[in-house]
Every structure is written in structure tokens, then in C-alpha cells.
Amino acid sequence: MVRRTAFTTAALAAATLVASTGCTAAPAWQPVAVPADFQPASLAATDTGLLVGGRRNGAPLLVQVSGSAITGTVDLAPKEPYAEVADLISVAADGDTVTAIGREFGGAHSNPRLTLWDGSLRANLITSRPQEFFTFGGHDAGPLLGIETVGGTPAIFGSRTITAGSEGVIWTRSGATWIKHTGVDPALVSNPDRVLGFGALTGLGDRLVVAGDEVGLAGGVVQRPSLWVGGLTGGWRQVLLPVPSDLPKAAGQLSRATGVDCPAGANACWVAGWVRGQPVVWPVTIAMDGTPVARPAARLRGTAPIDGTDPVALVTSVAGRPVVSTGATTPGLQLGCPDEWRALDTPDGPVTALVGSGSGLYLIAGGRLERLEPRPC
Fewest CB within a 10 Å sphere: which of 28, 77, 251, 301? Predict the structure, then answer.
């Protein structure tokens, strides 16, 4: 998704602090009155507001939001049966251009059937573009993390299943056709010594940034949160994110990075995840050659995950500050300030999407769309 928020050195330094008990920030979340029966699934910031994708009464729907109000819907032109019933699970905006991924489950085994959409806000229209089945489907198909526009080129990052585990795959568009890149970079490929998992995607300039984990198999099974940075044609580099040394091992608790945000205009990212039963966030700088350099993790408050042993932490930036949805029961949202991480008012229900824009912080929680006014530390 396009993000247009400032990224300050003071905010980056804040992530080296251990989270302390800050006061709860106000004001409270404001519900956005979406159309009746609309089930929002994805968010994308635009130059002037927000796009919200999802489904309504068994058909895809894409709405535009400004502040706390719906300002209109984007016309959709489905060109295949699965597009007519798709849930818009990923939306990206780059200036006037909009791209989206739709999903519906079908076939004999109820596998995900993916549809690809593109269009423009000026024309107020996006159209589905039928693809050859094995472009995204088939026996080795894996999940798609989403669409990002890097260097002016829309790109999809996902995975395919191989004998050793999984490999990261990139698709780019030629006209109306999406093409899978061949010759996968070795940094994105599982092998007998390690199995890779990919969980979150964002863009930074002409590079993609992917968060996930690596399970080392040599000398014992060890899971480590990980980050990959690379371009559409290669040059991928990986960094294993540091695990706080004083965190005891937690039986059955996964350790992985599940969210990443790289604000425009800075060679730096925020990465969120869980390690040994604790929500954490890492500040990562990106060197000129694309090498990611991870700083020590900040431990956030909240140790009771909503989703059992597999919690998902999300991260975005708003008003120049990082915001993490921890996936914990309380506090569920935390704002990174120069002196500490402060608790934000947390809406009910698990947060499934989170994005900052010029008009506020938006999230989808429990099937509702809500907005919080930008608030400085």
C-alpha cells in the first residue's frame, strides 16, 4: 500500500526503549458508516483518503473514504465468474492507479480462486483481468501477500511449494497479463537446512520488503523472525531479526515477524511480530545497497494473544509515528513515542487490517471499519 507519512529519527530511537506504562491516548475510535452488509477486508491509503475493499451480499465492493465518511464507490467490471463473487482481499493505490486481488473459494477442493483487477480513480473503474489458471493456481500454489507498486511497477509477492518447503515468488504485469518471474533468488528459497515462511509485504522505493520467519533445521529446529529486501529482478538480502536475550523460551509459542511498514521518504522500516510469547517491534534501516540492518527489538506490553499460539502483530505509521496492533488482548494498540510506547484505545475484536493516512489511523476490527484522529505524542 502507498504510505505517505514522515519518519523521524526520534521515532526510530523510541523503538530501542522497553515499553512502559503510558497513559491511554484519546480520543476514542470513530466508526465509519459503511454500506449495509458490507464486509471490509482490505485498506489502502490514497493521495486524498482511503480505499476499502471487501464484499457485500456475495459481490465485490470497493469504497472511497474521506475522514469518517464514505464518499463513493468505485465501479467494478468483473470479466469472469469468480470475479463476480470475489472478496477484495488486497488493494494498492499509486497516484491514480488502483490494483487489487480478489479471492473466492471454489472447485472440488474449495481452493482459493484468485482474480486480478486494475483501473484508475479518475475513471472510477477497475476491471478484472482473467489469467491462465497456473499463473497463481495449481498443485504448488501458495498464498499471495499482496500488491505493491515499486519503481512505478505493480508487483505481487507470494510463495510456491517446493520439496524443501516454500520459495518466494514475484509476479509483474505485462499489459493485462501477470507473469511469474523465473530464476528465484536463492535468498528466497527453502533448502534442506532451512524452511522459509513469508507473512507480510510492503514497498520501499524500488524494492520490496517481506517479513516472515526462518526455521533452521541444522543442529536442531530453531525458528527465527526474518526480513528480506530486494528488487523485482533480484539482489535479495535477508536479515535474521534479533531476539531479546532475556526472553525465556515459551513452549508452543511461534517466533516470527508478521507486519512491516516502510514510510515513504526514508530508508527505514518498522517490523512487528511475536517472539516467545511476547509482542515486539524492530526498527530496521536499509543500506544503500539494499542490505537490511536490524536494531534491538522493543518489547511491547501484552502477553495474552487473542489468537492462541499464533498471534499476528500489524504495524503502520501515522503522523510520523509507528503504531502497532499487537494481537494481544490488552493493550491491543501501541504508539511509538520518543520516550516510550504508549497504549491507544483498543476497539473490540481482532484487528485484521491497519493503515495510516493523512486523515487518520484506520483499522478493520471484528468486521467493522473504524478511524482514530492523528495524535502527537
Answer: 251
